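Just scan my protein:

. . .
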Amino acid sequence: MVEKTWQKFEPEKLLFTLFNSYIYNTNGGSSGALFRNIYTDFLKESFEITGKDELEKAFTLYKEAASK
């Protein structure tokens, strides 16, 4: 399911979506780290399944954001 979900995005739209999510969550949009921790786990697992470098980068950024 994870592989199919990411395939629905055009590369530019996936990057835009991940970037917007990162900005929103690092600037207090979620009012806490709970969602960031859950999403970090999701991105890590998605990377492990797909091996896509973009997901590893997103995982790394979210991990950093969740620690703040």
Observations:
- Residues 11-66 form one domain.
